[in-house]
Amino acid sequence: MVTLSTDTEEFFDLTYSNEPASYYYLILEVKIHSVKAAWYHSTKNLITGFASYPFDGSFRRLLESYPFLASEFKEVLVCVESSNYLLAPKNIIDGANPEIFQLSNALDKDSEALRTTDLVNLKSEVVHPISMDLESEITSSFKHVKIISHIAPRIEHELNTLRSVQSQTAIYAHIAPESLDVRVYLENKLSLANAYYQTGKEDIAYYLLYASEVMDVNPEKTNLVLSGGINIGDEVWVLLSKYWKNIALVEPLSRIEISDKLSGDKAIPYHHLTHALLCAS
């Protein structure tokens, strides 16, 4: 299992710390045992902070421990991470219908509600369940908040990126503590989106090779772009390098700047958070 630290980690550029919170977007990525955060100063077009906090499932207790998260931001974007999602074409399939969703996915009707996040580039939507208690805590904790599926901004960013480069076939993978998100794009079209349970680097390599085989993609000729729990030269990177010649880490959103004070390997696992700004109001 690839494990990511659930200890508190914070690094900030405090240059603009005295300016109102209303200048900022707060991006929160909710995982099983942690919440990652990024602060975006909208008038400076600048990411000024990254952080990770332990999470026990309660937003109320999270904000009690870190009350500055409850400031009145311009908008709070909450990305709820879950491997339990469905991509549905808009106006063709009502994926938010519990009966349709449960044909391929799990839903606890007593404790979960189905929610959707629109995908502009695909003219479709991500359907995902969220705990009713968690949703209630999130909406009551922030004045300006939008809850989205974690997968939506990643797909939007990936399609934007592929349209701007010559090679439009690629595999994107995000490594979470117990899962691996894999998306395969063939000629600029999303052809596979799936999540796999993983217990370590061997599982990660296996599922990426499996997805490549299923989609008839040659690892030696296809770009592999990684995010999450990985860094250049670590054990996962070294193993995957045996099969892929072209591996890269995901880039932050190109239209924004990240403070020089946030550079370095520690910031890499947070870069994908910037993609959530594509879903801002």
Give Rg in angstroms.
18 Å
Structural class: alpha/beta
Compressed to H and E, one letter per element, the order equals EEEEHEEHEEHEHEEEHEHEE
- Approximate strand percentage: 25-35%
Biggest beta sheet summary: 7 strands, mixed
Please work out how many helical segments DSSP would assign.
6
Total beta-strand segments: 15
Q: Compute the average pLDDT.
A: 93
How far the N terminus sits from the C terminus, by CA atoms, comes to 36 Å
Principal-axis shape equals: globular
Low-confidence stretches: 1-5
Helix content: 10-25%
Can you describe this structure?
It is a single chain. By secondary structure, this protein is an alpha/beta fold. 19% of the residues lie in helices and 33% in strands. It contains six helices and 15 strands. Strands 1, 2, 3, 4, 5, 9 and 15 form a seven-stranded mixed β-sheet that branches. It is globular and about 50 Å long. It starts with 8 loop residues before the first strand and ends in a 23-residue tail after the last strand. Residues 1-5 have low confidence and may be disordered.
